[in-house]
Amino acid sequence: MDPLGNLPADLIRKCTDLMDLNFAEGQRLRTLNKNWKLALPSFRKGAYREERPWLLYRERGSGETRFFDPVRERVHRGNDPRLADARFLGSTLGWLVMSESLDLNPRKTHQTFLYNPFISELQQLPELTLDSPYPTGVLRYGVLTGNPSDNNTYACLITDYLHEIGNRRDTYTLLIYYVAKTSGRWEQNWSVASMLVVGIFDTWYIESISPSPDKISIEIWPKRYDFTFQTQEWNVSNFIPVDPIQWDPFHDQSLYHVKHRLQLPENPSTLAIIIGTSTDRTRVRNKIIGDQSDDDDPRASDHIIDGVWVEVRP
Description:
Layout: H1 9-19, H2 23-30, H3 34-39, E1 54-59, E2 64-69, E3 74-79, E4 87-92, E5 95-99, E6 109-110, E7 112-116, E8 121-124, E9 128-129, E10 141-144, E11 154-165, E12 168-182, E13 185-186, E14 191-198, E15 208-211, E16 215-220, E17 223-228, E18 233-238, H4 255-262, E19 270-275, E20 277-278, E21 283-284, E22 287-290, E23 303-310
Parallel strand pairs: 19-23
Antiparallel strand pairs: 1-2, 1-23, 2-3, 4-5, 5-7, 6-9, 7-8, 10-11, 11-12, 12-13, 12-14, 15-16, 16-17, 17-18, 19-22, 20-21
């Protein structure tokens, strides 16, 4: 019999307080036996919430995932086949927005879902079918405006459409497809909002997407694009570089140092594509870290690490 299982509950709590446990460690200890489960708080009841988001990452298409706790500098491994061959689009309030396909070619139909990696809960979103005047597209990002369990929350998918005029490729349409949750169910029909963007633009260069209950803000230097759901109106303003809640745990670090912190193998052709998130305390911007030369297209790398920052909450 495991002698640790006979420890009194109050002693277990004192011991674990000294350990500064995070979510992953607390969950593992709760599975030891009944005494530990009763002594340690439950994540679903609000325990282990972190001030900083965690990075969920994996080799593209793999179900073998890792969680990086940036405060304690700890890496935790996991395996979830539901994430295999799916693509990260973003996260909000602890929920991932995922595409069921890794395909980056323009398509007419797209299937997406929501997934909470902390409680292993999945919600399917209605199928998105694109139509004229934007008959095909690639899903770039996805966010929520609130908790997906609450009514009046919107699921949003961001894509773009390139207009080719002769030899010119400098006009895009930025598109937001959105669907609301009402009466406990997701509506089946997606709405779309479009904004014509003239100049050198690519959703690859979106710096951050910040959702709120009534609008979504997209920052593409040097502009910020705000779309309000109720009025269905856009507002375009100059990008403000000073961000009081911006946080970048990999600031000015080379790919070599990032690999070391994330316990990744030293592969010279690695590219890390990391999607940021926005909370009420922290905004992490999208980031691309690679070791190709400037003349190379980083998207052509053979070894790609996909990551997304996720707020630690049930």
